[in-house]
Specification:
The complex is a heterodimer of chains A (504) and B (339). Chain A folds into two domains: 235 residues, P-loop containing nucleotide triphosphate hydrolases (Rossmann fold); 135 residues, 3-Layer(aba) Sandwich (Rossmann fold). Helix content of chain A is 33%, strand content 26%. In chain A, the strands form six sheets. In chain A, strands 6-9-10-3-11-12 form a six-stranded mixed beta sheet, sandwiched between helices. In chain A, strands 18-21-22-15-23-24 form a six-stranded mixed beta sheet, with helices on both faces. In chain A, helix 4 packs across helix 5, helix 13 packs across helix 14 and helix 14 runs parallel beside helix 15. The longest helix of chain A has 16 residues. Chain A is globular, with a radius of gyration of 24 Å. The two termini of chain A are 34 Å apart. Chain B has a single domain, classed as ABC transporter involved in vitamin B12 uptake, BtuC (Orthogonal Bundle). Chain B is built from 15 helices and four strands. In chain B, the strands form two sheets. Chain B has a two-stranded antiparallel ribbon. Chain B has a two-stranded antiparallel sheet with strand order 2-3. Classes of the chains: A alpha/beta (504), B mainly alpha (339).
């Protein structure tokens, strides 16, 4: 329903500077009522800053924002929300411990003479959830006990409770599995049909095709293209606009694994209570094994258990023929196992500390003599790795927090490259990583396996598992339901296996 | 100019410098605010108390007073940087002092060496630290609660052992050693300086120190990077316990007594010094130099008040105000460099 009426929101020449960096260097775009406007750009292109400017969390240094034709300046998120602009951030800003209804009306509680009107809040929350197609969420349930998908719905309900006319969604699908994404899209379509506009941020090309109306591409804080038709614009063109170069979103070709290569990682009968059981697999030197499955199928838990970060109730893990001590990360690391965890920021990185410190944290003894660290050597080795991996910007004294998602992931990978590990466990290695950096990470995984590292990859994206792995294990409800060479199975078959039994 | 340097260089990343010049250079550079505060206090001291303040003996008195709480604060810097807190330091100092002086009055009669006092105090401090650490790391008790329990228990035990009596130490070798001076500097001050320097080196130049930053900054990431977070936590509280033992010895030497009332409110003084020094209470960022300045500021403050015959109550009010102002200033600075 895109008509030629005046735009709901129009952004002209917006500039936002932070000390030392210009985060936005001139952004222009329009959002019409009832459309899904996709914002595309690599990490570090300025999308997050732009969202914050639109939602009133940052004030622009230059430029003009018109809301329904009038120049506005939102001083804070509350001002933006009361005008009808609300952002739903990747890290949801809900308060666990409070009920759904309390969260929806947080900051604009319904009250009479200072007393909250609980019944009214519940009734209105119920109505909003119905409107969002989720009458199943009870308004009195503790938000902390909802799934990520339902929390997102609650965030949307909160936006709508302020009569939201424009919702800004920052990579909403990143925390959702395929089913949940489908539900989310249904909700988005219903909202746009009611005239609500959505600014949708995502890395996933196929989502933009499915849900988007128009696309604006950001690069280095500037608009490089705006108002492109979401369905007709060629993927290659979008990628070129985003990266400024031709990038093939493709998996590197691979040679078959040497059948005589030694089995580096041997997992036998691994089980952890109710989460998963009877998991057997081996990975040879130079082999990439992919684990496919839904969120909650046990795939990440298996990886963590192999690494010793999760207690197991049965089974063994051997590396190079040596049995690892159960539930002991130190033992796994010493045996040459490395993990790139799913939640990079909370589990993988020391965000406020320098890049080099994040790289050497697992290899400190190699840089120390009698416990004294050789800072110069640490920096030098880290610098070599960041140069080799093309981490941008290249300085190793910068806090990791200032890097984009893809570059942060490279830092985690560099940590294990430095250790020269034998087994690398990768949990969602490209989550939150933009297209350009993605291919680089694929290349890197390939290089590692060619050098004889045994790699295990977990990913929600079946395409990624199939493209990277030599052998694929499909996990469903804590059990391995299929194992076989990646080239003998296709995406739809994997999806069937993954979903089997859950469809009914 | 300044915006570039603040943006590019995060507070925890230090420039590759070496030796004493690095210690002084980075200490002065990052602690400008604290230096200014200390200088201001000294100016106030000179104006209000004149020669009584700007006297070598008075300065040495300040330093001697700062030494004891300073040693505790250095240890506290490690625990707080590692993401913990310890409320029991004052009680551990008291227990160590009582236990060591009990040994002195009983065993010293049989001409044992006075070093027995020292080792006893260190052992008691270390033991309390181990208990704290094990309860927190392996018993999964919140640090605040575990050390609150230790605070109550250690002081209670000190009262039981001493029968609530002040125990006078009369061991000539011991008193003579700690009353001496090295090149005009009292031994107590020398000990504080040594502890501070060793603390700085350990925190900034060793694997132990690096792991402390990692554990305090993000314990989950540290664990998944292969660091034994629980063991490290125990070591941190043990280190602080040892510092309390050292402080107990110094206190016994300064007062020639052991008492269950020693170290009263040390936990608050130490935490205050650490926090105004610039160490992040939530962990992951810590500075020994800042802590030393923090201790000196508080000690100088009470000295100036005492010389002007102002009450201890007035000192406490000023202390509270300083903590608030210092933390407010720090937040401003952090915001300006953080972006």
């Amino acid at each position: 329903m895109t008509t030629t009426t005046a735009p709901l929101l129009s952004v002209r020449g917006v500039v936002k500077r932070f000390p030392g960096v210009t985060a936005l260097g001139g952004v222009d775009f329009d959002v019409r009522a009832g459309e899904v406007h996709c914002l595309l750009g690599q990490n570090g292109a300025g999308k997050s800053t732009l969202i914050k400017v639109l939602a009133g969390a940052h004030r622009p240094d230059e430029g003009e924002i018109r809301w329904q034709g009038e120049v506005v300046s939102f001083d804070n998120p509350t001002a933006a929300m009361s005008s009808g602009v609300a952002a739903i951030y990747q890290e949801l800003d809900l308060v666990a411990g409070l009920s759904v209804a309390d969260n929806v009306f947080l900051g604009h509680e319904l009250s009479k003479a200072g007393f909250t009107r609980r019944a009214e809040a519940h009734r209105r929350t119920k109505a909003l959830l119905d409107r969002l197609g989720h009458p199943d969420i009870p308004p009195d349930r503790d938000v902390g006990r909802l799934s990520a998908a339902n929390q997102q719905i609650v965030s949307m309900a909160r936006a709508l409770s302020r009569d939201g006319r424009l919702l800004i969604m920052d990579e909403p699908s990143a925390v959702l599995d395929q089913d949940e994404v489908r539900t989310l899209f249904r909700v988005i379509r219903e909202l746009t049909a009611q005239g609500v506009a959505i600014v949708y941020i995502s890395h996933r090309m196929e989502e933009i095709r499915e849900i988007g109306d128009r696309v604006t591409v950001l690069k280095d804080g500037r608009t490089v293209a705006t108002g492109l038709p979401a369905r007709e614009t060629r993927t290659a063109d979008l990628i070129r606009l985003m990266t400024g170069r031709d990038v093939e979103y493709a998996f590197p070709p691979r040679d078959p694994v040497d059948p005589a290569a030694p089995e580096v990682l041997v997992v036998r009968g691994l089980a952890a209570g109710e989460r998963f059981s009877g998991v057997d697999f081996t990975v040879r030197a130079g082999e990439v094994v992919g684990l496919a499955g839904l969120v909650g199928s046990g795939r990440s838990e298996i990886l963590e258990a192999v690494y010793g970060a999760r207690r197991t109730t049965a089974g063994t893990v051997e590396v190079d023929g040596k049995r690892l001590r159960r539930g002991n990360v130190g033992a796994a690391v010493r045996a040459g196992v490395g993990l790139c965890p799913e939640e990079r920021k909370s589990q993988g990185l020391l965000l406020d500390q320098a890049v080099y410190r994040n790289i050497t944290v697992s290899t400190l003894s190699a840089f120390s003599r009698f416990g004294f660290l050789d800072n110069g050597a640490e920096r030098a080795r880290s610098q070599e790795l960041t140069t080799a991996l093309d981490v941008r910007p290249p300085g190793v004294d910068r806090a990791v927090r200032t890097l984009s998602g893809g570059n942060q992931q490279k830092v985690v990978l560099a940590r294990w490259l430095l250790r020269e590990c034998r087994v690398l466990l990768l949990d969602e290695p490209t989550r939150g990583v933009d297209v350009g950096a993605r291919s680089e990470i694929y290349e890197l995984i390939r290089d590692l396996s060619v050098r004889g590292v045994a790699v295990v990859v977990v990913s929600s994206e079946v395409e990624e598992v199939l493209g990277l792995a030599d052998r694929v294990l499909v996990v469903r409800e804590g059990r391995v339901v299929h194992e076989g060479p990646a080239r003998e199975i296709d995406e739809s078959r994997v999806l069937d296996l993954v979903m089997e039994g859950t469809a009914a | 100019m300044s915006e570039n340097t603040t943006a590019v260089r995060p507070p925890t990343a230090e420039q590759p410098q070496r030796g004493v010049s690095a210690l002084l250079g980075s200490a002065a550079g990052r602690n400008t605010g604290l230096v200014v505060a200390l200088v201001l206090l000294c100016v106030v001291g000179v104006i209000t108390a004149g020669d009584r303040f700007a006297d070598v003996d008075n300065v040495l008195t300040i330093l001697r007073l700062a030494a004891v709480i300073g040693v505790v604060s250095v240890g506290m810097t490690f625990v707080i940087t590692g993401g913990g807190i310890d409320l029991s330091v004052g009680a551990i100092v008291a227990l160590s002092s009582v236990w060591a002086t009990t040994l002195a009055t009983q065993a010293m009669a049989n001409d044992a060496h006075w070093l027995v006092i020292v080792f006893a105090a260190l052992a008691v401090g270390a033991g309390c630290g181990v208990i704290n650490g094990v309860l927190i790391a392996y018993g999964r008790i919140v640090a605040f609660i575990a050390t609150l329990a230790m605070l109550a228990a250690a002081r209670g035990l000190a009262e039981i052992i001493s029968n609530r009596k002040t125990q006078i130490v009369n061991v000539p070798g011991f008193t003579a050693f700690f009353d001496a001076s090295v090149l005009g500097v009292p031994v107590l001050v020398v000990i504080f300086a040594l502890v501070a320097v060793v603390g700085w080196v350990v925190l900034n130049r060793t694997t132990f120190g690096r792991r402390t930053f990692a554990v305090g900054g993000n314990p989950e990431a540290a664990r998944l990077a292969g660091i034994d977070v629980r063991r490290h936590t125990v070591l941190l509280y043990t280190l602080l316990g040892v510092c309390c033992g050292i402080a107990a010895v110094m206190l016994v030497a300064r007062t020639t007594t052991g008492s269950s009332t020693h170290g009263g409110l040390y936990e608050l003084d130490a935490i205050a010094a650490v926090v105004i020094g610039g160490t992040l209470l939530s962990g992951g960022r810590g500075t020994i130099a800042g802590t030393v300045f923090g201790v000196l500021i508080f000690t100088t403050l009470s000295n100036v008040f005492t010389l002007n015959n102002l009450s201890i109550s007035a000192q406490a009010v000023a202390k509270g105000a300083i903590i608030v102002v210092a933390v407010l200033l720090q937040q401003r600075l952090a915001r300006r460099s953080g972006a």
